[in-house]
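>> received
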Amino acid sequence: MRRYRYRCTVCRTTSPVVTEIAALATIGEDHRQTLHGGHFPDDEMAGQIDRLGRWYAALPPLTALHARIADALSDLRDIKTMGHYWWASAGATLLIGGTAALALLLAATLL
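>> returned
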């Protein structure tokens, strides 16, 4: 399940988590119309977040990959909650580490 959040840096407010992009657009538009007269605040943010509430766009690539895998594994058990299960985080780490080891082994074999 994808999770989205809207952040206005002018008002220093963050919306609750929503699961649909249409709901995110509605929240942002309502905020701009109500508090800013329809103007777009500087540095406003809207986008997808992980189960820990971090913006995917702000994460380094390896951390974002780990978060996406851990989110997918956590969603297998419960799609409504936030936070990673310990086994989902461990599984994501093992999957990334195993893939890196396999790639290294393959590269060493080809040389």
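>> The longest strand covers residues 3-8.
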